[in-house]
Amino acid sequence: MGYSLQRFLSRVDDNLLCGICAAVLKDAVVTPCGHSFCEHCLDTWLNQTERRTCPECRSGMLPHEARPVIALRSLISGLSIECLHRVRGCRMTLKLEDEQRHQAECGYSPAQCSTCGDTMDRYRLANHELQCSKVTAEKEEKGDADFLTRRKNSASGRFDLALSELACRVATLEVQLKQTRHELEMSRARNRRLERELQRRKSELEAQKSEMRGTSGRCDTQLTTFQSASQLSQFISRYLLIKPHYVNKDHVFRSIRDYFDHYIAGGDGMYHNDVHALVATAYASNWFSPSQRLCIQQWLRTLSRRSQEITGHRTNMPDILPLTS
Question: RING-type domain: which residues (predicted)?
Fold first, then answer.
């Protein structure tokens, strides 16, 4: 019989199952026709004289024609399994190749009390035998030589058992430590990825902030120094229908008013064109409040009349310009 599927920690590939017992291959062998079985299962099948055939395809074969499959045996021996005594409480997980050594040390394997004959977990045996003191005293009083010999051997056995129990627990802790280290390394790797992602996001945010500060600074410089009405007019026209969030419309409005007042106070004809273009652009934008647009509208009327005086031609200007919100 092969190894029970329930003992393996992960799903076992169907190609590793015996075609006779349907369990995981134990001591895998291959037939001349290429099918794999447990060595014991195939021997049992072939030793029945009427079945000198492959169990899978019924091709004729003899017992000595089966060959060990070293690669399969190595692969299966490296699979992780649960302890055979898991139902008794052992939580040890190990490689299949280590099973025999573990079973010799497992504290959950069944053991029999040499005094009363009860069967229990091996790691409980030492304490249990101490509870048999009444029986022990009676035996000693009777001078039972066989009992005294067994007791002497039992003391040595308890020491060996304690060592095996300790070895079992150490092995369990080693597996748990290995798993914990693996989880810790995975967690550290995940943290490193998150730190890199966080750093990348911070860099992107800083770049965006820097760009915004640069843009805002350039805009503030433009709106503060007011090097020319033409420059301000071009800036407004660039964002005619969508005012940048960092632009203060009241600041821009006051700047336009300053240009207009400066022109009215005595600007020349060339300056008139720049101011006229600035006021017209401001009126065409949607940056300003209704009250501000009324002022801009009046400035535009005044500039239109000035244009008429300068050029000697009347500029067609509606008496009332429409207001937009």
Answer: 18-58
pLDDT at 83 over 70: yes
- Structural domains in the chain (count): 3
Return phi, psi of residue 24, to 5°.
-70, 135
Confidence (pTM): 0.41
> What range defines the domain where residue 167 resides?
97-191
Q: How far is CA 97 from CA 26, 27, 73, 76, 80, in A?
A: 11, 12, 10, 8, 9
My answer on whether 244 and 289 are in the same domain is yes
Q: What are phi and psi of 110, to 5 degrees?
A: -70, 140
Residues 127 and 179 in one domain: yes
Say whether pLDDT at 208 is over 50. Answer: yes
